[in-house]
Amino acid sequence: MAQTVIGFFDSAEEARRAVNQLEEVGVSRSHVDIRENAGSETVGYDRDRSNDEGGIRGFFKSLFGDDDDETDRYSRVGGSSRCIVTVHAQSHEEAHRAADILDSCGAIDVDERDAQYTRTSSGSDQRRETTIPRVQENLEVGKRTEERGGVRVRSRIVERPVEEHVRLREEHVHVERQPVNRPLSSSDAENFREQEIELTERTEVPVVNKEARVVEEIRVSKDVTERDETIRDTVRNTEVDIDNLGDSERRRRTDTDLNDRNSL
Fold first, then answer.
1. What's the total number of domains in the chain?
2. Between 50 and which of 2, 58, 73, 152 could a Cys-Cys bridge form, CB atoms 3.0 to 4.6 Å apart?
3. What is the dihedral angle through the alpha carbons of 180, 185, 191, 197, rounded to the nearest 10 degrees?
4. Which of 33, 19, 11, 130 is nearest to 81 (CA)?
5. How far apart are CA 15 and CA 8, in angstroms?
6. Mean pLDDT estimate for the chain
7. ∠ CA(143), CA(21), CA(144), 5° rounding?
8. CA dihedral (253, 255, 258, 262) positive or negative
9. 161-170: long-range contacts, CB 8 A cutoff, minimum separation 24
């Protein structure tokens, strides 16, 4: 459901900043009108939206219909403002976002401005008064955390070829047959029987074993330090000077009144 959001600004710069921020959050530029009252110059303002009364009042008359009080109230504030920004929002959510942006950029409080206007423009038999807001800026310093670097430690397994030399021993059995021709001796007679002789050949083979040992430790730690930093900036505030009218001013007014009476 389409909704209309209106913001009045005393500064054209604030109004244009509001329009830029509206575009940044996705509000179509074709749905945003900005009217500058100075010199009756209008930028991006659709004059067809105003009715036969024309001008600012005609525009608000087209919005509020028969509600003349609202029409008069907005017309008074709009006529005294520097710029008017109108947002033709396409949804309730978009209207809410637009209203927040207009307020944050310095939009005029309609109720407060109209109350001031009503007080200053009341009849001569009533007490005229106007309000001068005294504004003071305060410096607020906060903190936020930012990442400025760091260290990443990773461990990985790598392989490398190694060589070790080892001397291995091998046994070999040799059998030799040698022909002889001699008479049988007594020792030969003792061995003249069935016999069995067995010799075993042995060889050494390499045996490989791996032992893992811790050769280094990498420790990762973080130190926290604090520092004092002085923030320098400027703040603004409104100073109100009150001057009392002296006797000379009262005499000047009295003389003027007497001259006016004598002229009658």
1. 1
2. 58
3. -40
4. 11
5. 8
6. 80
7. 10
8. negative
9. 166/206, 168/203, 168/204, 168/205, 168/206, 169/202, 169/203, 169/204, 170/201, 170/202, 170/203, 170/204
Is 57 part of any domain? yes
Measured in degrees and rounded to the nearest 5, phi and psi for residue 22 equal: -60, -40
Write the DSSP string, 112-125.
HHHHHHHHHTS-TT
204 is a domain residue: no
C-alpha triplet 172, 176, 178: angle, nearest 5°: 165
Q: Tokens 């009217």 sit at which residue? A: 35
Q: What phi, psi does 154 have (nearest 5°)?
A: -125, 140
Q: Which range marks the domain in which residue 115 is found? A: 3-137
Q: Over the stretch 27-69, which tens digit does the pLDDT of each residue have? A: 999 999 988 864 333 333 343 433 345 577 887 888 788 888 8
| 40 assigned to some structural domain | yes
- Residue linked to tokens 């008074």: 76
Q: Residue 48 carries which DSSP code?
A: G
Residue 107 falls inside a structural domain: yes
More confident residue, 256 or 182: 182
pTM: 0.41
* Consecutive H or E run containing 261: helix 247-263
Residue found by looking up tokens 């309730």 in the block: 92
